[in-house]
């Protein structure tokens, strides 16, 4: 009944608009200005307006101005995330995963289109919610030199990038350097816990931070060389190295129990060093055929020290090394009835984490994966279709623990346009997901006097099945879409709490029955004054079903928000707000609280100055909160950060170009590794 009501409401809004004058959408380059975007089977192809491109200084700035459904952009922290936290957001430039530095140094005026994929295919990997592929023209000659920096004036927080790219004929070289820092002193965590002991009595603990400090310093330098003839071949090599340091993060916590009150002290230091070599090759074989290959080698060195004193000292250190090699190759053949793609992806990873002091063990984790797939795309009886079939294998071993997991991974997408302004789409996918490497560690880490986090070397990958139905409406000035999805996670990684005979509460992950989700959401965008003022609103209802081995948890949440953008000559004004995101997973009910962003920027020539405000009129905002719903342990936690309250940041961007001429280029690979496998 609810589905009928929602569909009727959607049609009621859209049908009166259909009666208005509708221009034909022509995809020829000279006609493309008539359509803001074109619907595709896996998402939409967006053509940013001149006003949006002229008002943008970077890829982050341009993505923010597009107001994409389900996407939250933080220009201060340089992040693009899924509002509903349903997976990662892949950012690409001409088909390749893009680094933060590349998004900052790209030239928005050279952008041809943006492919926004809200139903990523199996070739994009696992746990990917959205893909944003920015297609730009490649410069044939000239150079660009620039700086883009965002620094807060109300707290110690900033990110500054310098970049230089030079092109000559088919060659391009690029150098970028990025420095980020923060020193937050306004973080506070308040926690109320109730433990049911073995004898049946209840034991309560109140934990309230009195002081806390969180510092971070990060450096990244990247060198890139590209040799490309857009008609026949592309070769690119990229070498980057990143070094980050958290020198002394500490807190003092006031702990209150029924019998006493005392203080606990915690401290953590962390250093990471990550060099990455990325090689890419594309070759046009002729006769509508092409092959692409990509290989990425990554080394991650981590040194961690952690201590906690709640009446008795507890400390551990970790020296970690992780080595990984990822390779991928894809063959494409543009046959007359359809596009055929055949692909292979393989990876090797070895992680050695040595724990010392109060935790004494060494994890040696070996992981290999193989994935092969075939995909066809075409059009039949007026309907667009994409059909994928793949098989994956995950292998893991750690001492006597090991698994060998195989899974068939089909995917089918069908879309059908009708009445010139509507498009209906159905998507089915079966995919593979695995927990973080840290969760299969053999380590046991103490969190406080009552709780421990324990790794589970017997944790296995699991299968996810999803059914998605969507209905989209599109006209040059207004667009709207409704989406419904039912997602089934079978035998998945879920929370497990164990109470021991000596009243210790152990938290780990185990494979249990299922976590399912059903949701319906809607977005609507209206260009009230073309090229001047646009408004986007969204909202959704979400229902969660968690069925563990010894618990059942159900929850309903609501998500809504709005985005307003105005372009007034050299001025750009943006406002964004949402009510946050609440979900239940296992025995944890989590909520990211409401967010408000305001920004105003002024651009003249090669310079732009911007002012950003986060959480206005909120002195000490709650960033997130959580509840533990276990029968033996009930706990409610609130995390606040006054450093983000009324946070004001200044953006200064300068970009100088000379002799830039453009030609098109595209590549289609994405491989990287960031998992250290350390349990904390």
TrEMBL record:
Annotated signal sequence range: 1-19
The protein, known as: Outer membrane protein beta-barrel domain-containing protein
Keywords associated with the record: Signal
SUPFAM superfamilies cross-referenced by the UniProt entry: Porins
């Amino acid at each position: 009944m609810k589905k009928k009501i929602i569909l009727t409401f959607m049609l009621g809004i859209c049908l009166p608009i259909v009666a208005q004058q509708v221009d034909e959408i022509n995809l020829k380059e000279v006609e493309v200005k008539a359509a803001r975007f074109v619907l595709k089977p896996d998402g939409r192809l967006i053509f940013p307006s001149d006003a949006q491109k002229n008002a943008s200084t970077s890829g982050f700035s341009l993505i923010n101005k597009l107001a994409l459904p389900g996407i939250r952009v933080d220009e201060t922290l340089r992040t693009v995330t899924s509002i509903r936290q349903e997976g990662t957001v892949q950012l690409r430039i001409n088909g390749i995963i893009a680094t933060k530095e590349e998004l900052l140094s790209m030239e928005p005026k050279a952008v041809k289109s943006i492919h926004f994929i809200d139903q990523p295919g199996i070739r994009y990997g696992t746990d990917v919610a959205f893909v944003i592929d920015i297609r730009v023209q490649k410069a044939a000659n000239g150079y660009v030199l620039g700086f883009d920096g965002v620094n807060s004036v109300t707290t110690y927080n900033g990110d500054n990038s310098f970049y230089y790219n030079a092109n000559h004929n088919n060659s391009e070289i690029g150098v970028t350097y990025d420095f980020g820092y923060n020193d937050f002193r306004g973080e506070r965590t308040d926690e109320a816990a109730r433990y049911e002991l073995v004898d049946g009595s209840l034991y309560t603990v109140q934990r309230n931070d009195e002081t806390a400090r969180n510092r971070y310093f990060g450096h990244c330098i990247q060198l890139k060389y590209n040799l490309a003839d857009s008609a026949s071949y592309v070769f690119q090599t990229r070498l980057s190295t990143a070094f980050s340091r958290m020198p002394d993060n500490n807190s003092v916590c006031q702990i209150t129990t029924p019998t006493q009150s005392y203080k606990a002290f915690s401290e953590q230091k962390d250093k990471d060093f990550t060099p990455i070599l990325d090689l890419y090759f594309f070759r046009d074989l002729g006769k509508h055929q092409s092959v692409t290959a990509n290989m990425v080698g990554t080394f991650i060195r981590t040194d961690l020290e952690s201590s906690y004193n709640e009446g008795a000292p507890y400390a551990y250190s970790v020296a970690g090394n992780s080595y990984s090699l990822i390779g991928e190759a894809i063959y494409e053949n543009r046959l007359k009835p359809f596009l055929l793609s055949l692909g292979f992806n393989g990876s090797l990873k070895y992680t050695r984490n040595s724990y010392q002091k109060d935790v004494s063990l060494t994890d040696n984790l070996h992981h290999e994966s193989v994935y092969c797939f075939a995909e066809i795309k075409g059009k039949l009886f007026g309907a667009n279709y994409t059909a994928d079939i793949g098989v994956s294998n995950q292998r893991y071993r750690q001492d006597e623990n090991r698994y060998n997991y195989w899974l068939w991974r089909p995917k089918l997408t069908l879309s059908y346009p009708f009445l010139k302004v509507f498009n209906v789409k159905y998507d089915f996918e079966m995919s593979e997901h695995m927990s973080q490497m840290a969760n299969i560690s053999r380590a046991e880490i103490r969190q406080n006097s009552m709780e421990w986090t324990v790794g589970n070397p017997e944790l296995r990958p699991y299968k996810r099945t999803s059914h998605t139905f969507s209905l989209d409406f599109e006209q040059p000035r207004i667009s709207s879409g409704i989406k419904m999805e039912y997602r089934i996670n079978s035998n998945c990684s879920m929370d497990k709490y164990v109470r021991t005979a000596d009243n210790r509460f152990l938290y780990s992950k185990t494979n249990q029955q299922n976590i399912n989700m059903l949701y319906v959401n809607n977005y609507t965008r209206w260009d009230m004054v073309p090229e001047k003022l646009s408004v986007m609103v969204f909202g959704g209802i979400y229902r969660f079903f968690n069925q563990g081995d010894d618990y059942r948890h159900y929850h309903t949440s609501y998500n809504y928000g709005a985005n307003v953008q105005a372009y007034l000559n050299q001025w750009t004004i943006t406002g964004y707000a949402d009510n946050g995101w609440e979900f239940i997973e296992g025995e944890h009910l989590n909520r990211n609280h409401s967010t408000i962003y305001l920004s105003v920027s002024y651009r003249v020539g090669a310079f732009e100055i911007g002012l950003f405000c986060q959480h206005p009129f909120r002195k000490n905002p709650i960033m997130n909160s959580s509840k533990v719903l276990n029968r033996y342990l009930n706990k409610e936690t609130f995390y606040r950060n006054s450093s983000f309250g009324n946070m004001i940041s200044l953006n200064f961007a300068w970009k100088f170009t000379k002799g830039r001429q453009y030609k098109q280029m595209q590549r289609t690979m994405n491989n990287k590794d960031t998992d250290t496998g350390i349990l904390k």
